[in-house]
Amino acid sequence: MFGEHQISKLSVSKATFFVRILNHTAVVDSFFISRILGEADPFAADNTEETPTLIKLRQRMETNDSWLVNFTQTVSAAELARVISFQFIDGDFGQLTVEEILLHLLTHGSNHRGMASRVLASNSLERPKDTFTRYLHSAEPSRRQFAKEAIISQTITTND
Fold it and tell me: Considering the entire predicted model, what is its pTM?
């Protein structure tokens, strides 16, 4: 998540868009977490009426992210296959498996983080390095060493 320093370099309208687009992803995450848990929708719309502060947004995102990480570490195959029926905020009805919900949250969040990142790039600001591959290598640093050893081994074998 980006801090006040970067946001302060944006115009008010661009900074507001940046925060609101990320807030939208956090709200949608909250909706689907509630649906997985069988709880009522936590919001009345797909974004909050007020634009949250970065601190509030960060808290909401960290809460959702923590829940999702913990859930995915222990979820069973049967739970992933469970079908959830729900009503979207616009009134349409939907039905997804838990696995499809998780995939939706991943692609939805990635799409909107890309939109927010574009705001930064178009204003010559540094973009966060938040790709899935970066996450995996940060969470499991041994992957880099294993990759290095495998490539060196392949190179030696190929050259012999």
Answer: 0.83
